[in-house]
Amino acid sequence: MKPAIQAITDRIRERSADTRAAYLQRVDRLARRPRGAERMGCANVAHAFAALPGDAKLRVVAERAPNVAIVTAYNDMLSAHQPFEGFPAVIRDEARRHGASAQVAGGVPAMCDGVTQGLPGMELSLFSRDTIAMGTAIALSHDVFDGALMLGICDKIVPGLLIGALHFGHLPTVFVPAGPMSTGLANEDKAKVREQYAQGLVGRDALLAAESAAYHGPGTCTFYGTANSNQMLMEAMGLHVPGAAFVHPHEGLREALTREAVRRVLALGPGADFMPIGRLVDERAIVNAMAALLATGGSTNHLIHWVAVARSAGITIDWSDFAALSAEVPLLARVYPNGAADVNQFQAAGGPGYVIGELLRAGCLHPDVATIAGPGLERYATRPAATEAGAVTWTPVGASGDAAILRPADAPFSPTGGLKLLQGNLGRAVIKVSAVPADRHVVEAPARVFDDQESLQTAFKAGELDRDLVAVVRFQGPHANGMPELHKLTPPLAVLQGKGYRVALVTDGRMSGASGKVPAAIHVSPEALAGGPLAKVRDGDLLRVDADAGTLQALVDPAEWAARTPATITPDQAAANGHNLGRELFAGMRRNARSAEEGAVTWL
């Protein structure tokens, strides 16, 4: 291990000692209980297994055979999750082959951010994570299971499933992906059409044709956003079958990997190899996930989600930990929006296995961790293949298949990671620098302040933004409106940057995991509605976004700055944020949400 990364891990361990110890005590206490069918009353047992075939009832109750929970995020709205429709039948079949049973314990909601982007539904997106965690808890609260399989891939779904699973940390748990869609229209070509549409150069028909050519079939979207970052992190934490992340849904290997997931969760059950998820996900696993995120220039959303995930395991991390790691972890991958390649090309060049192998060799990952595949993370520096009999074998990944996509740790794209912490008199924020040109890492320009994203779009269409500026979009935090992604702002800001203007975005909202070449200081904490300094910014204030120095400053006379009265959200806007399309139901979450740096959790 690099000494600096070991030191960061040690600090996290020391900071979390009391909460982690209390968490593990709860895990061990639940793990020591008798099995569900023996612990519960007869009526409870009868209800739990009423729908099982007779032979399965006999196995579970009389023969004490393992019973595995399936928690599925299947629906037809997410192209990534549509393939999960047939997974339970495969899982039940494989469980039967090993004398066990499997039941769909419950389904969790799974919304597509691509569908809701820029629309009111996006204001439910972040809070859907904690809703998914609660749905996972409801599914597992039937409490008759010896292990669990989590079927999920996309943005909030994997973090939500993981948070829920960690609250049932006494159960061995394996995450089961379904893989990416095949390559369609190149992501860069899609982005160009979006920018042309924003300028009025092409019409809606051309835009829809481009979008439909990019998003065209079952599987995960092919850019390296939050969904595919999830998959990288699951590999680095040892929660997938090794190499499962980016195999297409309908390849024969995909079914073999799903069957292997069943075999693994059974092997981790009570006995010599017992490994519940609460023990597996420790400080080292959290640091490994953070390092993998930084090494691949992954989604900024995970600077929120992984804080919440760690907290669920009794571990406390913050953005300073990410910043410290980013200074030590090299950038090894260029995948759109950090490069031209999509995830299929990333996989062909070596994929997660290559990244993990290089980070292990560079001392940037803890090798001596538990995984669902057995002890040691080196198992994940491999690529899988299916045998004729349907088993899975693994071979070392070897050298990068394309140096424009993946580079070794001793010749990286950058010696530091793809995400940085910014701080100053505007608060604390994060910026994704891996996709931003080096000459745009520092932007100093007058502010133009907006209280919603629609106002920025209107100003752009009116030609009011054709100049150097720092666009401030505030009242977009968890308390205000659920902290929506503001990805619809990328095309107009990219157009302005393409015209040669120096442009940046500063917001207490989120950007998509696919945020790209426009410098964006996001997740500003504390948020404006909670008294954060963004509420003091006025049109024309000179702002400086400096990703090199790690600063975020309003260059305003300190006395004047201190004397300013913060702006407040208007009654009309507050009403709009809380009504229609189900937003009323999330009022309690808006009230209770912690700050972005605290994971925006709603359950504390």
UniProtKB/TrEMBL annotation:
Pathway the protein takes part in: Carbohydrate metabolism; Entner-Doudoroff pathway
Reactions it catalyzes: 6-phospho-D-gluconate = 2-dehydro-3-deoxy-6-phospho-D-gluconate + H2O
GO terms assigned for molecular function: 4 iron, 4 sulfur cluster binding; metal ion binding; phosphogluconate dehydratase activity
Co-factor binding comment: Binds 1 [4Fe-4S] cluster.
Classification via InterPro entries: 6-phosphgluc_deHydtase, Dihydro-acid_dehy_C, DiOHA_6PGluconate_deHydtase_CS, ILV_EDD_C, ILV_EDD_N, IlvD/EDD_N
Residues binding [4Fe-4S] cluster: C154, C221
Cofactor annotation: [4Fe-4S] cluster
Keyword tags: 4Fe-4S, Carbohydrate metabolism, Gluconate utilization, Iron, Iron-sulfur, Lyase, Metal-binding
GO CC annotations, alphabetized: cytosol
Keyword NAD found: no
UniProt key word Lyase: yes
Any one GO BP annotation for this protein: Entner-Doudoroff pathway through 6-phosphogluconate
Domain Dihydroxy-acid/6-phosphogluconate dehydratase C-terminal: 405-600
Record domain Dihydroxy-acid/6-phosphogluconate dehydratase N-terminal: where: 66-378
EC number: 4.2.1.12
Function: Catalyzes the dehydration of 6-phospho-D-gluconate to 2-dehydro-3-deoxy-6-phospho-D-gluconate.
Family classification: Belongs to the IlvD/Edd family.
HAMAP family, sorted: Edd
Protein name: Phosphogluconate dehydratase
Record organism: Rubrivivax gelatinosus (strain NBRC 100245 / IL144)
